[in-house]
Model the fold of this input.
Amino acid sequence: MDGLHVERDDGVVTLTIERPERKNAITNEMWRGLVEIFDDLATRRDDRVLVITGAGDAFCSGADLSAAADGGAPTGAGAAVASMRMVGRAALRLHELPLPTIAAVNGVAAGAGCNLALGCDLIVASERARFSEIFAKRGLALDFGGSWLLPRLIGLHRAKELAFLADIIDATEAERIGLVNRVVPHDRLVAEVGALATRLAGMPPLQLAVIKRQLNDGLSHTMAEALEFEDVAQALMFSSRDTAEAMIAFAEKREPRFTGE
Done:
């Protein structure tokens, strides 16, 4: 759809937000499009990894607030809540995707655009990337999962600092505080993300999906609950053909060839 472009290449799906003239700000229609794309990805067996990036010199500047500035935002609490629920639905669909997700942050990531990046499993940032929980400066509260993501990623006090002050931080600072996994030279971003995505695409998809669920749910589980999940999950893994392939490959001193079975 307009503003969202999907490409597939050998198990790697690249979703590019394409509104460079608006620094890839997301419209209401694009939020619906993201939900549809994430729902589709969840059912495609051959899709192994999702990479999200932005066109031009920005990752995503967040929701397109031009309608609100022009007085065209939803009127009334009911309409506003209905509109925001689509944003929340997109965030939840991204979080619940069984396949690994990578944010390739090539420029500014602000507001919901920042949280779109944080909602991915891994974040690789260009040295030109900038991040901001800009909401307070726009007279808004956090959205797209920021209130849940930030404290888990960087701790409560640092999360409050970013959210209260709404400052813009550069890629180096984002890496220092643990907001991103790695920072790379701008002209190496595509290659570095491509190599990482290819590695993930070569891993066993069922096992990665279970590991992702274990880690995502771990902070809300007791130790006993986590161990019970681990016990059941590990027992199920032994019925997987990919687990058998991994064992055979280890014995034969070769790299395993995973098929998703």
Summary: The longest strand covers residues 4-9. The two ends are 32 Å apart (CA to CA). The CA atoms of residues 113 and 212 lie 22 Å apart. The mean pLDDT is 94.
